[in-house]
Specification:
Helix content: over 70%
Structural class: mainly alpha
Shape: elongated
Order of helices and strands: HHHH
Strand content: under 5%
Length: about 100
């Protein structure tokens, strides 16, 4: 899902690391940092989509709203923070495996 965002960020971070260090390769620490940060950025960028999708599926019935109605409804009724519930726990669960 968010790999389309994560991978280009990861590659750009590696490129920047090589440029700043003047080395041809990226150190192990650099790879770990690039992997973790790209995962965090990609997850943060796509997390609201998952919240909206979950909200849509939890409201079954004929009055179910679509994405374009649900997103502003969440913002209007609960504010922007409502788009990120549980994101910290999600990061703790999904970021470490991306480092391998």
């Amino acid at each position: 899902s968010h790999i389309a965002i994560q991978f280009p960020i990861y590659e750009e971070m590696k490129r920047q690391w090589r440029s700043l260090s003047g080395a041809d390769t990226v150190s192990f620490q650099g790879l770990i940092a690039a992997s973790a940060l790209s995962k965090i950025v990609a997850s943060a960028a796509t997390y609201p989509h998952e919240v909206v999708r979950a909200r849509i599926f939890s409201h079954a019935g004929p009055d179910r709203m679509g994405v374009w109605a649900t997103f502003p409804s969440i913002l209007r009724t609960s504010g922007p923070r409502a788009l990120y519930p549980g994101m910290g726990n999600n990061m703790l669960r999904h970021t470490p495996p991306s480092l391998v």
